[in-house]
Structure formats: C-alpha cells, structure tokens
Amino acid sequence: MTALTNLKQISILDVAANLGYRFNRVSGQVYEHPDHDSFRIFVDTNTFKWFSRDIQGDVIDFVQIVSGVSFKEALAFLKTGKFEQVQPVENIYQPFRYYLPEEGFKQARTYLKQIRGLNDEIINAFGRQGLLAQASYQTREFRESVLVCKSYDHNGALKGASLQGIVKNDERHERGYLKKIMKHSHGYVGISFDIGKPNCLVFCESVIDMMSYVQCRKDKLSNVRLVSMEGLKQSVIAYQTLRLAAEEQGKLSFLDTINTGRLTHYLQAIKDTTTYFQAHAGLITLAVDNDQAGREFCQKLLDKGFPIQADLPPLLENKDKTDWNDIVKQNQEPSLSEAIQSAQIQILRTNPPPKQSRILEL
C-alpha cells in the first residue's frame, strides 16, 4: 500500500474536527455542515460532497477546499497531523466577538457607489438599520479598510459579520478583493433588512446582492424582510422562517430554546405537520444568482416540497452566471470600466495602503 493510499484512508471527519469544522450527524453514516446543509461527509466511503457547489472528493481534496491550500500542502498537513478515532461531534457555537476598530464610512461609500453602482438612498437605508460599517482589518502581514456587514438575531444581538475589501489587490487576494466571514459568526442567522412590517421573506446570496435587489425592485417591495444567506444556506431560510412565525405569534422567546443544529429539521416539520405555508402564500422568494449552483439550490427546495418562488436575475449576454449586482452595474452610466478606474484612484488617494508591518491579529 502506497503512502498516498494511506493518507487517503485518514478519516475526513477527524480531519474536519482538527481543522475546526464541526459536522452534525444526519444519519448513521452521513454528517452535515451546520451552515451549509448541502455540504456532507459520507463516513462509509470516507468522501465528501458539496452538492450546491458540485464539489466532491477524498480527504486530500477536503483539506484543499476548506483550507485553500495546494495539493502538496494538504499532503504535508495530513502527514504531520494527529488524527484520533472518529467521534460524533455535537454542534457547539462559540460566542461571537466583534473586535474591529471602526472608521469613517467615506471609502466604503465610494466603493458601494462607484464600484458596485448602488445609490445613496439604498446605502443610507441599510446604514440606518445598523448593517453597514467601515473598519480596519489587520493580520500579521497587512492591514486594510473593509466594508463590514453585520448580522443580528431575533433579540437584536450581534451574531456575526462578513468583511468585503474596498480596494482591489490581485496580488494579495485570490479574487481581487478581501472576502471573509469573521470567526465564530453564527452563520444560520443571516443578515436581514426590513421594509415595513415583514410578512414574507426574500433570500439573496450576499449583502451586495441584497442591496442591488432592493435597488432593482424597490417599487415592488413592501412589508418584506430581505436576508443575505452569505452563500446558499438552508439553515438561514429555516431560522428566518421560524423567526417570522414567532414574531407573528408574539413568541420570540421560543427561538431561544431551539437546537440551532437542527434548524432544517424544524423547517421540514413545519411543512409536513402544519398549514403555515398554505396560509402564507408567497412566503419565500429566492433571489439568488442565476448560475448552476443557484438554480440547483432552488430546485432542491422545490423537490423537498417547499412552495418557494424564484426571482433570479436574467442572464446577461455571453455569461453563464449573473447576480443582481451585475444587473445594477449594467444599468450604470457612463461606462462602468471608466467609473471603476476612477473610483479605485479616488479610494487609493484617500486611503493609501500602509507600509508592510508585522501586526498581530487580534
């Protein structure tokens, strides 16, 4: 038996636990990520599959995907790690701590307006609900200003935050801009924005997409709660549906008693044992990306019997993926490329990158 074959026999479940990922058992041999219900580990074959992303593989592939490392780095980790016998791990959420020093909002506003095409009315509306801030994010290698998008639960408690870089840096970031969810964010909550007194829910994949959707559909939106799932997460749909039902009945305290690791099971139980969805026609709209992952996510919920509505952006010419921000930017004048170039220059002038230093991460 080769050394590579031996490495592939190391338990993915053990590796996940050592990397800080806690999967919940959904059946005898199947474990599910608490925040991504389509991300599953199959113990009997020691493989994983992330259905909504069409990603699958063995333990080496798993380390590469979740850690963002190369094949050689994944092998090195598996060779030096100490993995104990598989033990079912209960879902335990650590308290979220927001530690970023906040700045003014000038650079973030410039980014949202000139790079993302969003107007002041939308930006201000989200700001008034406490969802947006500009802060300084620092690691051992660099420091930069970021747009912070904040997540609050049913009690108004801050439960997480996602970070979006506002100055492009292709050398530093794989996708050009920093994109990060802060450690210990409670991913099942989502980031919500209310219009009026909500009686229905619209789900998007990101806060930028949610803001773009409001800008595109503003005249058609009333008494609605829009929610960014920060990806494609059925757990967020479940939590926000339970939250809306609890608000209607004046029983928000019920949400303090539920097992957040079983949110999708509560949602299924509501559909199977109550008439809640029948009494709330048009309750759930999915305004996700028009790509394979987004379409499959919609179909998965339909296949489970949930009466969801899909409001996907139209595919732009010669594109196989379009999100709602693409639609906003498509409608901007003058030329978007000129606007982006101008905005980047303006941001850099008002927010020059600091000299390299060794700054300890908080």
Secondary structure blueprint with pairings:
Blueprint: H1 3-8, H2 12-18, E1 24-25, E2 30-32, E3 39-42, E4 47-50, E5 55-57, H3 59-67, H4 71-80, H5 106-115, H6 120-128, E6 132-138, E7 143-152, E8 158-165, E9 179-181, E10 191-195, E11 201-204, H7 207-217, E12 224-228, H8 234-248, H9 263-273, H10 276-279, E13 284-286, H11 292-303, E14 309-310, H12 324-330, H13 336-350
Parallel strand pairs: 11-12, 11-13, 13-14
Antiparallel strand pairs: 1-2, 2-3, 3-4, 4-5, 6-7, 7-8, 8-9, 10-12
Would you give an account of this structure?
With 362 residues, the protein is of the alpha+beta class. The chain has 3 domains: 3-80, Zinc finger, CHC2-typedomain (DNA Primase, Chain A), CATH 3.90.580; 95-108 and 130-186 and 335-362, no CATH class; 187-331, Dna Topoisomerase Vi A Subunit, Chain: A, domain 2 (3-Layer(aba) Sandwich). The protein has 13 helices and 14 strands. It has helices at residues 3-8, 12-18, 59-67, 71-80, 106-115, 120-128, 207-217, 234-248, 263-273, 276-279, 292-303, 324-330, 336-350; strands spanning 24-25, 30-32, 39-42, 47-50, 55-57, 132-138, 143-152, 158-165, 179-181, 191-195, 201-204, 224-228, 284-286, 309-310. The chain has a 5-stranded antiparallel beta sheet, covered by helices on one side. α3 packs across α4, α5 runs antiparallel to α13 (336-350) and α7 packs across α12. The radius of gyration is 21 Å and the shape is globular. 33% of the residues are buried. The model is unreliable at 82-92, 334-340 and 353-362 (pLDDT under 50).
